[in-house]
Known about the structure:
With 157 residues, the chain is mainly beta. The protein is built from 1 helix and 14 strands, in the order H-E-E-E-E-E-E-E-E-E-E-E-E-E-E.
Amino acid sequence: MKKWLLCVLLLLAVVAFPTFVDASNVREVKVVNANSLAVKGAASPSVADIATLQRGDLVIISATGNGWAKIQSKSIAGYVNESYLQAITPIIKVITANGLVVKQYPTRSANTTATWQKGLLVEDYGSVGAGWNVVKYGDGIGYAAASSMTATKAKTQ
């Protein structure tokens, strides 16, 4: 009887709590493709909204599962319905500053997550306003000053 009850409880836990892919395997940037998108505190439609994103807002995805994406957009963190996110193609840029400081949020006071060297090629996903862009290099994603990068130029040889 105890084994049966334990199996039932385990099955309920698996069904009740959505599973997510390990965050280290996802790390990608997408754009909101809906007029407005509710951000939830948990991956469930019955959970109250904690914020709303607008069409064109960029999100950094750290995990996915059961149709939900765990996201960060500027200082907003939560869960959104993954079907309202669209892949975007980044622009390859070269770092022109002596060190590109990458922040957790698009503010100078935010924690620094990385510093990338001058001349490094990075993926630029676009502006989030106030001179900040979402950038990626390898598994590193964050916010950096747009003025510290420039588009690459082809050379004829």
